[in-house]
Every structure is written in structure tokens, then in C-alpha cells.
Amino acid sequence: MTRSPLLIRRARATAGAIAAALLLALGAPAVASATAPPPGGGGEASAAAAPLPALQVQGNQVLDATGAPADLRGVSVLAPEQNDLCEYCNIKPTSELIDIAKAWNTRALRLPATEIGATTDLAAYDAEYIAPYVAQATDLGMYVIVDLHLVRNYGDAAGAVPRSTVERFWDYIAPRYGANPNVIFEVFNEPINPANWNTWKDYIQPVVDGIRETAPDTLLLMGSPQWSTMLNGALTNPIDDDNTAYVYHLYPNQGAPTAALLDGKFGDAAEQLPVVITEFGWNPPGEFSDSITAGTTTNWGVPFRAYMDARPWINWQAWILDNFWKPQMFDYDWNVLGGEHQGQFIKDWLAGEPSVSPCATHEAVGAGVTVSSTYSAAYDGGNLVDGDCSDAGRWLSAVGDATPTASVTLAAPVDVTSVGVYSGFGAGTGTVLVDFTLEVHTDAGWQQAASITGNTQAAREVPVGVAGVDQVRLVVTNPSASTTEPKIARVYELAVHSG
Fold it and tell me: Which domains does the chain have, with CATH numbers?
């Protein structure tokens, strides 16, 4: 069952709701103009950009008023009212994150509005959490998606979101921003149940009709039940509207992003309908991901990008430009997460840089390798330096090898800054190397570079910082935490990186 990372952390979000309620109780500011400057920076020093061309669906594409493809690629920022929930993070204001998004070449910025209920003071909410950032994004020359970021059941059942709550939000927001061609409305982020497209259409069609009374031309993005994974229902029963595109949300828990998988989920539909992937993302198993988002750049990001690059009519926004909410693009100190994490990969993708697996290019590709044992001939030591981090491209040690060991001999001495240790099987954490040491050899002999214990990361970048290295050795003392799989080392690659 697919779930949004935001739903999993709903308990944390409660703190944000309480904080927002306190702000409103203390007297929120008056309603801001949609063109008011953003608070505390956010591009104030630069001249405002001219409005972007209005957007219109035509066939299976979103085009601008000039007839050109809209190219709505970008990132999501965190809902501004939840920006201070992490007690140990170095928090950046939303205005600063929007500046970063622009610097990353974001064309369409997704701005969630999360803590919305039947009694929310929408004028105060808009003034504090929407209007300043719409103005900033508009001034910076970006499209901005105002996203009603509800992750809830819908309808009249207990605990579900009644249609009146959604209508109330858009009855306020639509006339405020309907005349701004830079603004897009995402009508309901992730409805969950009932898991039926026709039921969903009956619920949401009156909301769309209401929006059209005051925002007749705004591009709408339409989610679907089961956390926005049922857009195929629109193939036979589309929303009755001529300027609506359909949303899909994709994470590694849904499977490896093969063409067959993605075609069935949204790709085939995108041959007929306009589709926007407003959420996707990954990080390796460990502290920067969870059960929904655990994946690697090599095995998930690279094939997903290849699929999307071949279908430029499918627009996308990556989740999430943050240092706390999973799967984040920065560590807690705002260093972009690279390697098998998504941050640098998304930044490069937006910049039009080539798609390169961090496993595929390193100093040890094609080097000589000796290993203590092999599980079978198909999984020999040469796989450690073949630039292939697929499951088929691993070294597996033999059952009964108590200390699996691999030594890599480089073609020439290298100043080694770090070694990437890629291990495990698929997206799970139970088969990654748990305890291991890295040793390096120079003219002075062997020395230990690092000792790792309790590892849970499938892609572990280990700092080394030793010059003149001609050999690297991996010594595994605990190859796996699994109690059901053979106790063997499973290693995709030893990626030697130089400075």
C-alpha cells in the first residue's frame, strides 16, 4: 500500500498545527496583497520578473500561451507552517528555500498548505503562509503550485475530509490568485479512501466547478485515491474540465522503476492525458529515508530519470527541498546530499546535466580484485569494481566465510578522499554490511582508514583522506543483520573516490 512520507509523520505535524493555532489566536497579520514582498529576503534585491505565460492543457500536454511546452519541472518546499518542527536542524526560512529552488533552475515550485481544516482562519493563513511566497516565486519568474496538502480519507465518513472543507479553502484562494498566470492549483494532494476513481470524481467535481466560477483559466492539478496513485481512472471518466492535468505520486516502495511498471502506473495514461508527477524522491536506507522512500540513485533515480527524460511531456516536482522531512535533499547542516542520495542528482537534473550513476565512475573501475571466497561464479570479486550496482552486479561471499575480505589493487597510486561501500539486496536494510573496516595501502604499508559498526546504510560513503593509495581492503566482521537470509557479504561496489 502506497503512502506519502508526510502521512507517516503526521504526529510530528501536529506540533505545527498547534503553533499555527497559537499564532492565529495571538492576532495574525491582515490579509497580504498577492504581490506583497516576501518576509526576510527572498529575492527582494532583484527586479520582479514579468508574469509568465498562462498555461493550458492541449491533448496530453500542458502548453503555455505561446504554444510551447510548459516545462513544469521543479521541487517542493515544506509547508511554511511546518518549517520549524525539527529541534536539531539548522532551520532556513521558506523565503531562503525558494531562493535555493530558483538557483537550482526550478521552473515550477510546489508550495504545500497543510494545516487546513473546517475552521481555519483562511485570511490569516493566506497572509502568513501563502501570499508572501506566491509573490516571491512570481517575482523570481517561477510558476508556483498552491497545493492543498491534505493526506486524508475523503467524504462523509467519520474522520474524513468533507467536501465543504475543500470547497471553503478554494472559495477563498481561487479568487485571490485566479488572475495570476504564474499560479497553479493542486486541488487535493493525497485522498486515500474510498479507493474508487468514480467515487472520487463525484466528490471533487463540484469543487472544480466552484473554482471555475472565480478562476476560469487557472491550470488545475488533480490527485486521485490511494495517495494519488489511481489516475488511470481518468482515462474512462475524466474530470469535466478543459484545463486539468492529472497527478501521480511515486516512491521506491512501489517497485523498481522499470518501463513496464511506470507504463502501467501513469506512462500509458500520459499518452492520452496530461500528467504531472508532483511527488517523487528517494534516499538510501538509513537516517535520511524511511520504508516508503528507501532507494538509491543508481537503482532508482537513474532509471526513473531515463524514463522521464524520454517522455518530456510528463512534468514533475521532486520531494523535498529540506534538511529534515524525508527524503530530504540536504543533511541537517544544509550540505547537499550526493552520491546515492537524491539531492545533487535532482539539482543536476534541473540544470540539464547528464545522468550518471555515482556507482559507475570511480578510480577503481576495472581494477584487480582478490576476495576470500565467492558464493558462486556469477557473483565473483570482479563485480566489486565493474561500475554496476544492480543486484546482478554484486560480490557475494561464500556461506561459512566468517570474515569476508576483498582487496582492490589500483592501476596507479591515488589520493583517496573516500570509499563508497554499496551493499545489501534490493531496497531492504537487513542485508547491508553491519560491521566492517576499510584499510588502505601506501609505500608505508597497510593502515586502517575506518572502522564502521552498526551500519544500516546501503550506500555508505566512508571518508579516508590518505594520499598515495595503491590498494584498498574491505574486511567484513558482520555481513548482515538478517536472521532469515544466509550470513554472507553482499557488496555491489567498492567505489574509490579521489580528491
Answer: 5-350 (3.20.20.80), 368-498 (2.60.120.260)
